[in-house]
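Quarterly update from the structural biology core.
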Amino acid sequence: MKINEVRPLEHNYSKGLKMLALIPKMLYFCGKLPENRLKSVAIVGSRKNTSYGKEVAYQAAYQAAKAGAVVVSGLAYGIDSIAHRGALDAGGITIVVLGTPIDQIYPSIHKGLAQEIIEKGGAVISEYPAGAAPRGGTEMKLRFLERNRLIAGLSDVVLIVEAAARSGTLNTAMHALDTGKDLMAVPADITRINSAGCNRLISQGAIPYTETSDLLNLLFPERIYKNNFRKQALKQLSLLAETPVEAKILGQILAGVRDGDEIISATKVSAAEFSQAITMLEIKGAVKSLGANKWGV
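Predicted structure, tokenized:
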């Protein structure tokens, strides 16, 4: 693999690292860095993921990449490699940030994944040059913790999928907060060890990730993903209106009118027509009673 080098603040994509307290003097990379400062999301988490974590990480990466975001992670076992795979399957760009020298892919079992990332337009990055002495023990752990600041620095949003109470992943979360990035965490079963870190982050103010639109709205607020999803849901609901009166009433409720008397006034239907139509809409599951003649979907 051809190894390239660049000063972080001299490339459009890596300029985000300027927020770091310790900016690397040089970045070494194989593959291709995005030409522009594309929106990026870091998706990281436990090496010992659950099936729940796997599904969430894959879908988050897939949908983010599909929307045009770069997915950044660390190539580790578990959530990291799942995130890279999700981005690749979506036909998107994903970037690996190593904690080892650029010519030492770690873990070695993911060399094939790293090569695929490069071949499909992504990159493998390290702040350590080829030939740098390998490290072990405590020094190795420190390098991976240092690597986490780069993952956060290259991203606009950091998503923590699964993390134990003392997970190294939480170090990435700390760097996200230090650099002013949006931090998201996936809530999960409070009895699971791998959920403790995420649940704690949420209790301390991290944004809960409950669906892919939560992430996409942070990355691309101008697109208003939730509204797009809501429009589809509302379109399906509108198909349940079988008469002109039902359509008028449902239209008012979908527009945010809740009070029955206000709906009658706006639609100019009689109280009897309203009562019959609202009952049918409720039976079909298009609307629900909120009590006191208030209605919602």
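Residues 225-296 form a domain with the Arc Repressor Mutant, subunit A fold (CATH 1.10.10).
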